[in-house]
Amino acid sequence: MIFAANFKTNHTRKSTAEYIRALNDKIESSPTEHRVFVFPPATALDSYETTATIGAQNAYPAQNGAFTGEIGVEQLEEFGIDTILIGHSERRELLGESQEAVAKKFAFFKEAGFEIIYCIGEPLEVRDQGDEAVVEYLLAQFEGIDTSYGKLIVAYEPIWAIGTGRSATVAEIESTHKALRATLPATPILYGGSVKPANIVEILSIENVDGVLVGSASLDIESFYEMVASV
Ligand code: 13P
């Protein structure tokens, strides 16, 4: 299983270091065979001593250059970071990243050999139209994406379930992951959206769910590791 913590715009450099220290202590006292990822904000990226994988929430598809406010591969390489989140709905919706821009970013970081957690997810109005509309919407988010890339992990995060406390139902997750599996026979598929200690066991027991991408409930190390240790 894969457990990924997406801090979004939370935690500082100091609190991230404390978090990773606490995570290391937990891994040492209660070892896990699961893969653990942490995506801190860009200001907290560093060369942490940990068996968890530290990744970037975002970066510009360039080695370096004139891209004010962005970081590129050079700034990630400094810390040995070769894992990135691409296509998160908050970047698509709030930062206006188009499918074309997302695909360009994907191609660049694939070429650079990064492990990519690629996020997809539908808005509520699409979910309300039923399963078929959802699958069609999600498959369109693979436009321009090499779904056979060996270092790809896909995260299905219904937008209406993110940060709302309302997770998708077991039936919704099951049918969506089953449909995605047809396109992604060998790629791990994570679920994200209001995952928390109270629903982790149920979510991970769903067929074709290979792990979780967690926002709010990952911010506190006790809550995050409770989930890691639960299965
Ligand atoms: P929440 O766990 O806060 O719903 O966020 C999910 C998410 O967007 C992770 O990338």
What is this entry, summarized?
It contains nine helices and eight strands. With 231 residues, it is an alpha/beta fold. It has a single domain, classed as Alpha-Beta Barrel (TIM Barrel).
Would you write up a description of this structure?
There is one protein chain. The protein has 231 residues and is α/β, with parallel strands linked by helices. The protein has one domain: Aldolase class I (TIM Barrel), CATH 3.20.20. Helix content is 35%, strand content 15%. The model has no long low-confidence stretch (mean pLDDT 97). Strand 6, helix 7 and strand 7 form a beta-alpha-beta unit. The chain binds 1,3-dihydroxyacetonephosphate. The site of 1,3-dihydroxyacetonephosphate has 14 residues, from strand 8.
Oligomer: single chain
User: Segments where pLDDT lies below 50 for 5+ residues?
Assistant: none
- Distance N to C terminus: 9 Å
Would you count the extended β strands for me? 8
Task: State Rg.
Answer: 17 Å
Number of helical segments with 4 or more residues: 9
Strand % is 15-25%
CATH homologous superfamily descriptor? Aldolase class I
What is the CATH level 1 assignment?
Alpha Beta
For this structure, the CATH topology is: TIM Barrel
Pick out its properties.
alpha/beta; globular; eight-stranded parallel β-sheet; single chain; TIM Barrel; binds 1,3-dihydroxyacetonephosphate; 231 residues
